[in-house]
Amino acid sequence: MTQMAKYPHEVGVKVGECMEAGDLEGVLSLFHPDCVICFPPEEPPKYGHEAVREIFSELIAAKPRIVNRVTGIQECGETALLQHDWRFEDAGGNLIAEGKSTEVVRRLDNGGWGFFIDCPLGPPALATNI
């Protein structure tokens, strides 16, 4: 089901709600169509809704509980930079994964906000040959 984040800081919370509900289409609706996802960090970035579907279909099957805490935000017009502390827990409250993310969100065509650049474990390191 289509979701909408009214404010930049709501995007991660809305994605978490969709994941807990097993709603992959809701997750997709919270990503910009031209998004880039840097996950896993040792692999090349992935692009667009097909990448979102590929990455989140596996995660969503576990219906994890997601705890997000925005630790930094800078908004400029139709774009915002966010940092989160996050963790995935199973139904028993046991830790599955955690990290510190960096994201860029942009205004979507529906008037809400969605992830444009998603780096769940922070931005990738620079290549050693740069």
Automatic annotation (TrEMBL):
Full protein name: SnoaL-like domain-containing protein
Highest taxon, organism lineage: Bacteria
SUPFAM superfamilies: NTF2-like
Gene3D superfamilies: 3.10.450.50
A Pfam family assignment: SnoaL_2
Domain SnoaL-like: 17-92
Xref: InterPro entries: NTF2-like_dom_sf, SnoaL-like
